[in-house]
Amino acid sequence: MISAPRRRIATALASAALGLTLLTGCSDDVSCGLDQCTVSIARETNAKVEVLGVEAKFVSADENTVTVDIAGEQIQLTKGQQAVDVGGLQVSLASVTSDAIQLEVSR
């Protein structure tokens, strides 16, 4: 049987390893913390990034709504809307500018 202090250390090490795994899944257009990533995608045809092992691709946008393809599934996101579950991730729209969209992504 594992003692309580060893169990806490093992849990802490496992959490740290998971955090590093999540961080290494990020690119230049993706900024990650331990449990959430902010993703910027250019508003241009075929613009895409990879986040947490899943491809996110820009499809279209207007002032408040964007359509993105996440893990092969097209979804529409609106500013202020709660996160949508897609491809095993929670995705929400953070902002829309004339140049890019910004998504919040978490597991």
Q: Your description of this structure?
A:
This protein is α+β, with helices and mostly antiparallel strands and 107 residues long. The chain has a single domain (4-106), classed as Sandwich (Tick-borne Encephalitis virus Glycoprotein, domain 1), CATH 2.60.98. It is built from 1 helix and 9 strands. The strands form 2 sheets. Strands 1-2-9-8-7 form a 5-stranded antiparallel beta sheet, with no helix packed on it. The chain has a 4-stranded antiparallel beta sheet with strand order 3-4-5-6, with no helix packed on it. The protein is globular, with a radius of gyration of 16 Å.
Query: Which assembly state applies to the chains in this document?
Result: single chain
What Rg, in angstroms, do the CA atoms define?
16 Å
Task: Count up the helices.
Answer: 1
CATH C-level class is: Mainly Beta
What is the CATH architecture annotation? Sandwich
| Average pLDDT taken over every residue | 79
| Total domain modules | 1
CATH superfamily, please?
Rubella membrane glycoprotein E1, domain 1
The profile of the biggest β sheet is: 5 strands, antiparallel
How many β strands by DSSP?
9
Strand order of the largest sheet: 1-2-9-8-7
Structural class: alpha+beta
Helix content estimate: 10-25%
CATH topology: Tick-borne Encephalitis virus Glycoprotein, domain 1
Distance between the termini: 32 Å
Q: Give unreliable regions as ranges.
A: 9-27
Strand content: over 45%
Order of SSEs: HEEEEEEEEE
Choose one word for the global shape. Answer: globular
